[in-house]
Amino acid sequence: NEAIDGKISPEDLEKEISEVKIEPIKQVFSTIEVEYANVAEQANTIFLDSYLDGTAKTNLGTAISDFDNKFAILSAAQNEITSDNTLSTTELESWNTALSEFQSSVTTISKRIQEAQTYINTAIYNASVEYTNETIPDALTGYAKTSYVDDAMEEAIKDAKDGMVSSTDLTINNTEILMS
């Protein structure tokens, strides 16, 4: 009957309006799912880094938990809207609140990721400085000993060529140098 006279019932009109409003919510949520997966992967990877410790690790862990929770709430709001393809005022308010809270959580986790990355970079730098401070002096000491031997040998050879030292003395001096 409606199809024949072209009239649309108020119920059908409300359903069509709801469907038009639901499609953008689906598209926004689809984009958010991708963003959520990327940020969660990055945050979890950084959280597991062996150089991350202390307050930076605790803050990132708290942000990850909040981020996951806010995404679950947003997902539930989206599922409620799309499950019956109708959009009530309550559902729309729930979606808007969940979206706002999720966006706030994205800001927080981004900040915590940056803080954690700075902590990790500092820890790596400090570890390399410590390693360098322990290793380089030992390496230089070895170099100094080698350099001393090389220099002494060159001087002994020069002295021998100049006739200042006999070949017998050169052999004795060379043995003494290598033993020290």
Question: How would you portray this structure in words?
Answer:
The chain is mostly helical and 180 residues long. It contains five helices and no strands. It has helices at 2-5, 10-47, 54-83, 89-161, 167-179. Helix 2 runs antiparallel to helix 3, helix 2 (10-47) runs parallel beside helix 4 and helix 3 packs antiparallel against helix 4 (89-161). The model is unreliable at 1-9 and 169-180 (pLDDT under 50).
Write the layout of secondary structure elements.
Blueprint: H1 2-5, H2 10-47, H3 54-83, H4 89-161, H5 167-179
Note the gap between the termini.
112 Å
- Bin the helical content: over 70%
Global structural class = mainly alpha
Topology, number of strands: 0
The unreliable regions are: 1-9, 169-180
Global outline: rod-shaped
Question: Which strand-content bin applies to the residues?
Answer: under 5%
**Mean pLDDT over the residues:** 78
For the CA atoms, what is the radius of gyration? 37 Å
Q: Provide a count of the helices.
A: 5
**How many strands, which pairing sense, and closed or not: the largest β-sheet?**
none
Tell me the series of helices and strands, N- to C-terminal. Answer: HHHHH
The gist of it:
The chain is mainly α and 180 residues long. It is built from 5 helices and no strands.
Sum up the structure in keywords:
180 residues, mainly alpha, 5 helices, 0% strand, rod-shaped, disordered N terminus, disordered C terminus
